[in-house]
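User: I've been trying to design a sequence by hand for this structure and keep getting stuck. Would you show me what you'd pick, starting by listing the structure so we're on the same page?

Assistant: Good idea, let's start from the same input. This is the structure you sent:
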């Protein structure tokens, strides 16, 4: 079983994750940011990862530390669960449509962190989350997961559809990259 349990405690956050790469898409979370929680559920569902998250953060200030540190912990979890990466596909790609949105996500689990994020949101918030934090999340997961990550919106007008397609595409591409064989 490819599993990881990671805890991160800072002055700003207290985050823990239990991850099973060979799961069925089960997701549970205790966290204050509802929109972000919904987006993380898309990663688990479309990646077929079982994830349990507990996030406490200084959201009375804003969501920055909680979102970024969750990316850090998830990146560390994926890296730890993969171990030596023996037999994995390494590469994963997904192009996901969601109504008007069309998003491309490409991943290389090379151990070389890099993020190319070609996304332009036209609204500052989605629900209770600042849209600029989507990039911060993926930057943190790329750095701490040791992955080269390209995310590009090919088309889209509705910011919610764009964000959701991004998280779904990431889950789907990561599922392919961590798969054994092929």
């Amino acid at each position: 079983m490819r599993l990881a349990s990671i805890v991160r405690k800072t002055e700003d956050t207290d985050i823990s994750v239990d991850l099973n790469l060979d799961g069925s898409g089960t997701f549970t979370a205790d966290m204050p940011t509802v929109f972000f929680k919904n987006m993380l559920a898309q990663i688990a569902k479309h990646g077929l990862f079982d994830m349990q998250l507990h996030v406490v953060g200084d959201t009375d200030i804003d969501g920055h530390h909680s979102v970024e540190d969750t990316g850090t912990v998830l990146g560390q979890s994926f890296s730890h669960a993969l171990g030596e990466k023996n037999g994995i596909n390494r590469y994963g790609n997904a192009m996901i449509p969601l109504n008007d949105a069309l998003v491309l996500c490409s991943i290389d689990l090379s151990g070389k962190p890099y993020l190319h994020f070609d996304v332009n949101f036209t609204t500052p918030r989605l629900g209770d989350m600042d849209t600029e934090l989507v990039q911060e999340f993926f930057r943190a997961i790329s750095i701490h997961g040791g992955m080269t990550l390209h995310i590009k919106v090919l088309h889209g007008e509705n910011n919610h559809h764009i964000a959701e397609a991004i998280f779904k595409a990431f889950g789907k591409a990561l599922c392919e990259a961590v798969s054994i064989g092929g």
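That's my pick for every position. To get oriented when you compare it with your attempt: The chain has a mean pLDDT of 95. Strands lie at 3-9, 13-20, 27-30, 50-57, 91-98, 101-108, 114-118, 125-126, 129-130, 148-155.
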